[in-house]
């Protein structure tokens, strides 16, 4: 499966627009969503995607502490992000439903905070 990558300037504009409007932006068949990790949670804390449609998550740690981003049911795990660091994840959701996304930089039994990743059928 191949994806077309967008130029850096256009991607930055898309991410800024998406964050400002809190509405996913579809560009070339890929839904781009900016996820901001703050010290008290994700913004947005609820992400909606469409079954079998490519999604690009640009995850940025805007907090003052280290954080991670994961959606375990989709085997999505970023590296530990220091303040100011960004990670990009792109995939096509293959199962509809509501899934937990969370941050757990200490990899202990209790997630730091969480949110919802919802995959709709799109029919």
UniProtKB/TrEMBL annotation:
Keyword Signal included in the entry's annotation: yes
Residues making up the signal peptide according to the UniProt record: 1-22
EfeO-type cupredoxin-like domain mapped to chain residues: 14-119
Swiss-Prot/TrEMBL keywords: Signal
The UniProt record lists the keyword Signal: yes
UniProt xrefs under Gene3D superfamilies: Cupredoxins - blue copper proteins
This protein's name: Cupredoxin domain-containing protein
């Amino acid at each position: 499966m191949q994806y077309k990558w967008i130029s850096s300037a256009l991607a930055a504009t898309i991410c800024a627009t998406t964050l400002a409007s809190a509405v996913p932006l579809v560009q070339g068949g890929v839904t781009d969503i900016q996820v901001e990790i703050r010290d008290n949670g994700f913004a947005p804390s609820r992400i909606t995607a469409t079954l079998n449609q490519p999604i690009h998550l640009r995850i940025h740690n805007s907090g003052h502490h280290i954080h991670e981003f994961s959606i375990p049911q989709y085997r999505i795990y970023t590296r530990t992000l220091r303040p100011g660091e960004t990670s990009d994840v792109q995939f096509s959701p293959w199962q509809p439903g509501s899934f937990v996304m969370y941050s757990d930089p200490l990899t202990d039994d209790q997630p730091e905070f969480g949110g919802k990743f919802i995959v709709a059928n799109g029919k």
